[in-house]
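Hi all, long-time lurker, first post. I run a small reading group and we've been trying to get comfortable going from sequence to structure in the token notation. Rather than ask abstract questions, I figured I'd post a concrete chain and ask someone more experienced to write out its structure so we can walk through it together at our next meeting. Sequence below, copied exactly:
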Amino acid sequence: MQWMHMFRLEAKLLGSSWVFLLLPVLFGIWMVGRLANIAPPVSQNLYLFVYEFHKIQHTLSLGAAMLIGILLVRRDLRKPAYDWTTALPISVGMPITAKFVVGLIYLSLYTIAMLLVFVLFAVQRELPAAAIAADASF
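-- Answer (accepted) --
Happy to help. Here is the structure in token form:
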């Protein structure tokens, strides 16, 4: 029960910023824009094009991961006199795991956005379902 309280607290901190909520959507829109403009000089293989896209764009999402890590930890570095969570009878690992799970769920939104865009374009190009599943599971 206390872990869920810590989880909700960390999720509220992360979810209160509209920038963080908008970033995965913007990455998905960026991928849609790139996939919609595939021209013949570039490989027509959708999987290879998406793989090339991810080399740069997923690396850029590491900046969001570092910023989230800083924001989730910064509250713990303030003076403990102002933080009521230090009065809770919890173990040291509880806030750390709550922060980790919140960050992991948020960063999974980037992967889900990219997967949805890939599946949309794969279905649009009438690729077989087995090929879509094999490429998407990579």
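A couple of things your group might point at:
The chain has a mean pLDDT of 81.
Residues 91 and 127 are 50 Å apart (CA to CA).
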